[in-house]
Fold:
Amino acid sequence: MPKDPERRQLVREGVRQLRRMLQDPAYETAENDGVRCENLAEVLALVVAQARDAGSDEVLLAEIVLRVSGLHRDDLLDARAILAPLGYTDIAALLRRLARSAPRRLTWKERMKLDAADRREARATSS
Structure:
């Protein structure tokens, strides 16, 4: 595994490359491979399987996918709860590390307060 600054640079480059690929119109019309994942744990297991098959660093690829996705803390911890008992220890450690800095999901009450503030601001600017 590369040193920490090298790894961070690899992740940044990978995130930029994946975002460019996802924004490419050709990607939207690409043929469907028929793979359907129901949750984040399944997506990560698929990423790990493909990385192992290609001989790549599975944790690095998983981190790139997770950083592009911008998931909430709860989603990351839910995936960790599934993958850790299945033996994906490195991925579980990554999920825990990313969950520490991931945004938490707002409660219904917090969302309603934000919506009310947005409505008040919209009324104030339209007057």
In short: The CA atoms of residues 49 and 58 lie 8 Å apart.
